[in-house]
Amino acid sequence: MRHADALRALAVAAALAAAGAQAQVPAQRSADPAAALMPPAGTVAAAPAPALPGRWTPAQVEQSFLQADANADSQLTRAEAQRLAILPRSFEDLDANKDGILSPGEYQSGAR
Predict the structure, then answer these.
(1) d(CA 68, CA 34)
(2) What is the pTM of this model?
């Protein structure tokens, strides 16, 4: 009987330790606001929420375009544009020549 009681106590202690470790992860991440936006490792991220206008560097704008360009053809379809991390205006407003495709130039000028 003592062996079974010791195993139960060990299992309870392990469960509490695991719960405590999980509770500490958000506290550690809260110091870095950007880390709070990152999904846990091994998960699929949902499309990011659009950022606020006027707060992007050219590198951020370029990175947003490259990440959304699923087939790497240097242009964004309407479906790909839904993946943009930075969406300063609607797809129709960004598509200056109204061809149904966003070029890097159209996107960059719309993000300024």
Answers:
(1) 19
(2) 0.52
